[in-house]
Amino acid sequence: MLLAFAVSPPRPARATQGTPALSLGRAVLPNGLTVVLAPDHAVPVVGMELCYRVGSRDEPEARPGLAELVPRLMVRATMHVAEGQYDRALDAAGASASRWTVDRDRTCFRTTVPAAAVALPLWLWSEQMGFFTGRLEQRLIDQQVVTLRNEHAQKVENVPLGHLSDLESARIYPPGHPYHAPALPDGDGLRGMGVPEVRAFVEAQYTPDRATLVLSGDFDLSRAVDLVGKYFGTIPRGPGWPRRTFGPPVLTGQTRLRIAARVEQPSVTLVWPTAPFYQAGDAELEVVGELLAGPRAGLLRLKLVDELRIASSVAAHQYSRRLGSLFVIHATAAPGHGPDELAAAIDDVLRSLQKAGPNDYLMRGSIAGYLIGKLFAIEAHAARADLYGRCEELGILSNCVDGWTRSFLLNAAQISSAAARELPLGRRLVIEAVPAADAPIAGELRP
Amino acid sequence: MRRWPARWAPLLCCGLAACAAAGPQPGVVELPVLAWASGDDAFRAQPPAPFPEAAFEPPALDVTTLANGMKLIVVERHAVRLVAAELVLVGGSASLPDETPAALALMVRCTANGTKSFDEPQLFSEMNTHLIEVSPQVGDSWYGFSMRAPSVSFGRGLQIIHALALEPTFPQASFETARGQAVGHTAFDPDNVDLIARRNLYAALYGPSHPYTRALAPRKADLARVTREDLVRIWRQTVDPSVATLVVAGDVDPREVRRLVEAEFGGWKHDPLFPPRATVPVAAPSGPRLVVVDRPGAQQAKVLYGAVSPSVASPDHPTDLLLRALLGGMRSSALATEVRDELGAAWRAGVDFANRPNAGLDWWYGSVAPERTAAVLATLDRRLGELRARGPAPNELAAAKEAVVRSFPHRYETVKELVATVAQAEAFNLPLDNAGRVIAEVGAVSGDEVRAAVPDPAAVKAVVVGDLTVLGDSLLGLEWGPIEVRDADGRLLRTLAR
């Protein structure tokens, strides 16, 4: 029996003659699930995404890795989806790029399916949201803890300087901060993890009021609305568990660390705590990243690699996060050169940028590099679904493209000012990495 | 509210379909949503039936040939105000037996250092002002230039491709800088486990001096020897309209594209003395089944397990597509499930491949827990043996066919993917209706045909990059014969035997 009302198809947004009529639909179900629907019939595929506002920051401190464990279990079996059927069903439907991700703030399931299979992920994901915990088994938990260990070994322990990122988080975010612990734990914290503990965490956190569902692509809007109501409408709202929060970290001086790793060349990494995701300074620093190391500007590359020839590679990037971002510069030395020399040359470039902004040529190059990556990517429905989901979470869905490309309005003075304010040379973390045959590949702290 | 500067505004509104329809932004419509009654959950017991499915039709190609022999393929797609293009020049490093792949790679990279029409700053200024992305592509079978831009910038993008391909000046100072950067990047090669594993697998399957093996990644010594004169010579040997195809897809009018292409490339003269493309030698697998590259302290072993596969032009290619799916291309394949969940040996593993106009490669890959590496190799052999003896189960074969056929539309989702798909078919000299043909043929492959296509496990080679002190005994216990221990560059260090 249907609970309620008929659906009248939404009016398309402004349409012009000769172009397809497109609209962006949004709904919030009574249980709190937010839904964004973006029909576009150009290609017979649909990009789909279900993101929970649950990440590693939400797991109990005593259980690092729990947020990583949950999606592994959710794709193994649920009440009506037999063990292994999740993958089999998506494979047989011709789905591509089916994956889940966990970061500090979010857990997302994504796939792109042929248009005829649009209902399949709705069935699978509604099972996870409403019918998962009753199917939990200790055997599956133990099995997936092993895959988590394997993932950690592959992504961290077996990677040159793989521990660098964890070291940055541990030193920048203070103990107690939700980002202090490693982003991808090694699984040791899950020893003895049982069904009741997983169940309690999932039932408190992975609930419709903490989730956003996005469909972008070739689907019928009215039919999609029906399907969303059918599969997700009866799942109960969650208990409203508060999220752990913390102010952005602040450094009072410069900290220097030295790590040894079984690598070929020395390197230096400079890290600053910076403006949180989508707050003042965040967009400026994304452009600064392009300006310093992007392919169309690359001040550091020009100076360290091409002119001085003291580095073989340079990278600079703003890692935007809700509770405080990181700006990271990493340079690997050319043979015969070392971390001190690299750091001094980087500081020269930064001083110059902080004193006077980039010229018009470099400014235009860095903004073009930043925008091209964002705008061209969202031709693909998976990327577009991701964009709409993020805009919805930020409350800027009706102004999504403007919001997402806000860096375009920046000028050289703002870039220079942000570099001076957010990247002070005296308040940062400096990590020198040196090759050592007796050190682990991933690196370890040395005096 | 602040707005984008007027001269950029039309360009910015290019990636989003909603922009294409209505200018700056779509409106957001609040939707009412139906909710089913609680407790009425019987429908959840079964997966939803798929909606009626129209047979997928690959995009229609508008094909013309210029008087100089250059081919032009245009695909119209007006949903977004984007255009993608790729200039394909058939004949990559494999067709230059007397040149090093390092020289070709540097030559293509250095085309952006300056041309007769644009110096380097002008080139980047054009690309930045008009949001044009141009990337050089270098391979062993072809090379070229791909471009993506707002459709209003197509003409300028075409001028840039023309300049890079036909007018490079290779300024000496810029060449030396680029060579220095390329040499510098090889410093990471000893830490690049994937590259080390692939170099050794290619050497085992194609032969160590085969052009495909040599082309895998330019080596430091080869890069350091390249001169500007090498670049000029290679450019002259590889650029001619008789080997060129331009593929264009997006929000364009084919007639206007033909006019612009004729204006840019119509004056390009075919050289009657242009050398024919060299024939690539056949694959010559050699050596023992198992090669190990020692990586002391490695926490996992990188495993590649592969064999020579049929040409993409071969009638056996559709069967090979199914074999890839069955051996781990599908996440749900029996092999993937066994290795990941039952053995607990790897987080992510799968099947990769190298399509080539003659013989390609298929290989299974995984980063494997050291103590389970021998068990994984034994599992791979056993699974291959089962498929060779009995063929796939009917449900497995059906799932593989569905996965392969239904995933075809993804190859055409964006204009960039569409152009890349068509360009690769051109590079391999495949017929224009190749995609439709392959879809039909995959559906007709029988279990017996799959069984017959499975390689004999004895012909399959494996490369393991890991800590030999941890792996050695268990790998010898496989009884695959002697094990060659090679270095990261593929040089034989010693042989292990029971």
Can you offer a commentary on this structure?
- The complex is a heterodimer of chains A (447) and B (498).
- Chain A is an alpha+beta fold.
- Chain A has 2 domains: 25-232, Metalloenzyme, LuxS/M16 peptidase-like (Cytochrome Bc1 Complex, Chain A, domain 1); 254-445, Cytochrome Bc1 Complex, Chain A, domain 1.
- In chain A, 38% of the residues lie in helices and 19% in strands.
- Chain A has helices at residues 66-74, 85-93, 119-130, 138-157, 164-172, 195-205, 221-232, 282-293, 299-307, 339-355, 360-377, 381-394, 400-404, 412-422; strands spanning 24-28, 34-39, 45-52, 96-102, 107-114, 211-217, 254-261, 267-274, 311-319, 325-333, 428-435, 444-445.
- In chain A, the strands form 2 sheets. Chain A has a 6-stranded mixed beta sheet with strand order 1-2-6-3-5-4, sandwiched between helices. A 6-stranded mixed beta sheet of chain A has the order 9-10-8-11-7-12, sandwiched between helices.
- The longest helix of chain A has 20 residues, at 138-157.
- Chain A is globular, with a radius of gyration of 24 Å.
- The termini of chain A are far apart.
- Chain B is of the alpha+beta class and 498 residues long.
- Chain B folds into 2 domains: 62-191 and 205-265, 2-Layer Sandwich (Cytochrome Bc1 Complex, Chain A, domain 1), CATH 3.30.830; 290-496, 2-Layer Sandwich (Cytochrome Bc1 Complex, Chain A, domain 1).
- Chain B has helices at 9-12, 17-22, 101-110, 120-129, 154-166, 172-185, 193-206, 211-214, 220-225, 228-238, 254-265, 317-329, 334-342, 373-390, 394-406, 415-427, 434-444, 447-453, 468-476, and strands at 28-30, 62-65, 71-76, 82-90, 133-138, 142-150, 244-250, 290-294, 301-309, 346-354, 360-368, 461-466, 483-486, 492-496.
- A 7-stranded mixed beta sheet of chain B has the order 10-11-9-12-8-13-14, with helices on both faces. A 6-stranded mixed beta sheet of chain B has the order 2-3-7-4-6-5, with helices on both faces.
- In chain B, helix 12 crosses helix 17.
- The radius of gyration of chain B is 25 Å and the shape is globular.
- The relative contact order of chain B is 0.14.
- Strand 1 of chain A pairs parallel with strand 1 (28-30) of chain B.
